[in-house]
Every structure is written in structure tokens, then in C-alpha cells.
Design brief:
single chain, alpha+beta, Alpha-Beta Plaits, four-stranded antiparallel sheet, 8 helices, 4 strands, globular, binds 2'-deoxyadenosine-5'-diphosphate, binds magnesium ion, NDK-like_dom_sf, Nucleoside_diP_kinase
């Protein structure tokens, strides 16, 4: 069974709008396994590190302010192809380009308030999980009885 991991985060607007449960549900119902979760009110410095690849973009200061403005829910999800599939569940970066049925396509409008984050590659997932979960980056190891009904 695949044990790929990804970092998924409910952003401050997703938390404030009461969408944490909905976002978790979509990953759970798909069959992915939650292996770590915590609420964090991240510092500006922590967000700057998370988005270091975007430093220099015109929207970067606003992005850092928004992402450190309130608590987020940081998660590690496991499963086959979960990095790519997670991005598909979230929808396009700009919610106006996200299909209905995706999280952003159903619940967001502005790119600067797109309610959720998902790693864009296996390598960035590893880096992000280490940044947010440190020693617990690999998540909690446990078996699920349903896995024989999710995977062939
Ligand atoms: P994604 O979150 O889909 O991986 P990204 O890594 O390119 O997208 O950008 C990170 C976040 O920055 C994104 O979720 C929202 C914000 N952002 C990206 N492009 C933006 C833009 N043109 N204007 C405002 N915010 C933007
Ligand atoms: Mg990104």
C-alpha cells in the first residue's frame, strides 16, 4: 500500500468560516488517512519560511500578513498519490478558475482568501511537513480496518 504523505492546511479564513470539518471530510471520504493534525497560530517568520519560494512576489507581504493573522489547522494526510490528488481536491490556486466540486471552487472567490493549502510535489511535502511538524513529520503510524475496502 502506498504511504505517500502530503501537507494540507486550513488557512485562517477557512478556520474563521467554519470550513475545517468540511475540508477534513473531503479528504476522509475520498479514502485518505489523517496521520497528524494540529492548530497553530503561526508567526510571520514561520509563514515567511513556508512561502520562501514566493518572496519577492508583489502579493508576498499581504500573504504573510493574512497567513499569520489567525490560527490555521496543519495536517498530514497519507495515501496513494495523495500529493497530486490533494491538489485536485483543493482546486486551482485562483478560486475563480477552480471547478465546482473542488474545495476552492465551492467555497472561495478571491485568490488571497483561498481557504486551504496543499503541497505541490512530494519533495515540497517533505519540506513542509518538517517545517510544521518537526520530529513528527512522518505522522502517527496506525492501521485502518477500512483500508482493504479502499485499496485493492
Ligand atoms: P498554491 O497555494 O495553489 O500552491 P502558490 O504556491 O502559487 O499557490 O501561491 C501560494 C499562495 O499565495 C496562494 O494559495 C494564494 C497566494 N497567491 C498566489 N498567487 C497570488 C496572486 N496573484 N495574488 C494574490 N495572492 C496570490
Ligand atoms: Mg504552493
Amino acid at each position: 500500500m502506498a504511504s505517500e504523505l502530503t501537507f494540507i492546511m486550513v488557512k485562517p479564513d477557512g478556520v474563521q468560516r467554519g470550513l475545517t470539518g468540511e475540508i477534513i471530510s473531503r479528504f476522509e471520504r475520498r479514502g485518505f488517512k489523517l496521520v497528524n493534525l494540529k492548530m497553530v497560530h503561526a508567526s510571520k517568520e514561520h509563514i515567511e519560511k513556508h512561502y520562501e519560494d514566493l518572496a519577492g512576489k508583489p502579493f508576498y507581504p499581504g500573504l504573510v500578513k493574512y497567513m499569520s493573522s489567525g490560527p490555521v489547522v496543519a495536517m498530514c494526510w497519507a495515501g496513494k498519490d495523495v500529493v497530486k490528488q490533494g491538489r485536485i481536491l483543493l482546486g486551482a490556486t485562483n478560486p475563480l478558475a477552480s471547478s465546482p466540486g473542488t474545495i476552492r471552487g465551492d467555497y472561495a472567490i478571491d485568490v488571497g482568501r483561498n481557504i486551504c493549502h496543499g503541497s505541490d510535489a512530494v519533495e515540497s511535502a517533505k519540506k513542509e511537513l518538517e517545517l510544521w511538524f518537526g520530529q513528527e513529520a512522518a505522522g502517527i503510524q496506525y492501521e485502518r480496518a477500512i483500508d482493504q475496502w479502499v485499496y485493492e
